[in-house]
Amino acid sequence: MNTDKLNIIEATFLIVIVTLSHIILNLPNSILRSTGSASIINVIYISFLTIVFFLILNKLFEPFARKRYS
């Protein structure tokens, strides 16, 4: 096996890592530009929506998790 070349999985993960780091590092600037002084309220609102969405998905997938391990 040639260790000098990237395979498909490594190249895919490299692209995903670069894209996610670009999104994460530019997110505060984009929030400040779009909402201005209300950026703190916007972050709290987005966090609240994310937690609610996670709890709903967790509740929906709960029966499937029990079937898998029993």
Notable traits:
flat; 2 helices; 84% helix
Tell me what you see in this structure.
84% of the residues lie in helices and 0% in strands. The protein is built from two helices and no strands.
Largest sheet: none
Number of strand elements: 0
What count of helical segments does DSSP give?
A: 2
What string, H for helix and E for strand, traces the elements in order?
HH
Q: Helix coverage percent of residues?
A: over 70%
Blueprint of the fold:
Elements: H1 8-35, H2 39-69
Structure described in brief:
By secondary structure, the protein is mostly helical. Helix content is 84%, strand content 0%.
